Amino acid sequence: MDADAHELAALANQSRAQAGLAPLQWDPHLAAAAYAHAVRMAAEGPIAHRYGGELSLAERASAAGAHFQLVEENIAVGSSPQQIHTLWMHSTEHRENLLNPQIDHVGVALVSARGVLYAVADYSQAVLQLSFDEQEEEVAQQIVSLGLPLQAGDAARDQARAACLSSSGIPSNSRLQPLFVMRWQSGSLTRIPSALVQKIRSGTYHNASVGACKPHASSDQEQAAFTAYRIAVLLY
Which of 25, 98, 228, 231 is the most exposed place for a label (fewest CB within 10 A)? Predict the structure, then answer.
């Protein structure tokens, strides 16, 4: 049903263009999550966004490999992609999902069963995939803009990365002894935590280092689905 899925996505982009919105990019990870749920809908009969024992939308999309700050879903049963698109455009909730200006990616799946098509469209505001160096640079620029310079040398970066990998405490270093460390996980690096901003503006510290690492697992699967970055900032 790949042709039908791409047709439904194309129809969504036509409607977005008419509304003056940017087109959605195809995300194969979202499409995989949508397909798994469409298969479940076809097996269950009555359509629903979640069945017993099934992961939530955010957890399903994350498990399929998608990275996002926002995720939403449209579902339907219809005879063709055109009819399904028309149904969504005449439903306030589904239309708002499809025309949401914040979303930028889509994955669609249609499964044929009992003479109809079971359709799922998963939309997301995707998270930019950055290397650790790029993540550190993004945060460092914000720190420097607040008037706090970075500690020079690889030793400071390595110490910050070690702090990022750990869950608590301040990592030791023969030459550098930070006075404060903050760690956080997020789906966005566009704004550092307000508590860190206050620390920097206090005038207590002379410089900083930034370290990035892989996000730690969370006991809250729903929250973990929206986590793409883990950062540690050390203040000296």
Answer: 25
